[in-house]
């Protein structure tokens, strides 16, 4: 196997393009507020991503709203639905009925 | 097999993930497919990894380029967001393009960028400052790989090169 190139030579793995492509730049700073909220949360939570998930979700939702990111369901990006009883979607209610 | 540099990466990953050197070649699972699979399996991860950030510009590139946060602490399987800030300090519009690197090298195979600002030209006007997000995900399989036992930090480094000046 011509392994020299495949195993990256002196820099290790060759860079791989991002899976969903490139984020357009937010030249108009439309999502600055959401970004600041997320970064402030990180600063006050010991930089733990888990503690600031709702802010990163809001940031990405902002991008989707302003056409700075392709729209898709947030659960596909790893944002699981919160387990709140008053925020259940009808889908969840139906699946519970089926399980019973 | 002979192939371009990008073609070599899927081969390397398949080899490292022990799908069998002589085995059938499968399409590499996308990050979204991984997320769905682990959600379905109820995968739980415990180890917290500190992802830290480096930013560089190539010689002659008149941008200020820095990580916006010092680190993001994340568990494998949690998608996470981080930012870099770039500012064009020159008096002409400049287009840059960036590439990245992940260290330690042995962890790089588990570091997935879902979306970021790299690999395409980005143009900043004179004096313009902009925040550049990176949305990433560390594969949960990182936790079950004993070679990763001694890794608690991953460093993501970006370098901006001048693509053109207009």
UniProtKB/TrEMBL annotation, chain A:
Coiled-coil segments on the chain, per record: none
Chain residue ranges for the region called Disordered: 73-100
UniProt entry keywords in alphabetical sequence: Disulfide bond
This protein's record includes keyword Cell cycle: no
InterPro entries registered for this protein in UniProt: CHCH (IPR010625), Cys_alpha_HP_mot_SF (IPR009069)
Feature: compositional bias, Basic and acidic residues: 78-100
Domain of life: Eukaryota
Domain CHCH: residue ranges: 31-65
Protein name (Swiss-Prot/TrEMBL): Cytochrome c oxidase assembly protein COX19-like
Protein species of origin: Punica granatum (Pomegranate)
Automatic annotation (TrEMBL), chain B:
Single GO MF annotation: copper ion binding
Organism superkingdom: Eukaryota
Bilayer disposition of the protein: Single-pass membrane protein
Gene3D superfamilies given in the database record: Ctag/Cox11
GO CC annotation, single: mitochondrial inner membrane
Main location: mitochondrion
Cellular location(s): Mitochondrion inner membrane
Sorted UniProt keywords: Membrane, Transmembrane, Transmembrane helix
Purpose of the protein: Exerts its effect at some terminal stage of cytochrome c oxidase synthesis, probably by being involved in the insertion of the copper B into subunit I.
HAMAP family: CtaG
Name of protein: Cytochrome c oxidase assembly protein COX11, mitochondrial
Protein species of origin: Punica granatum
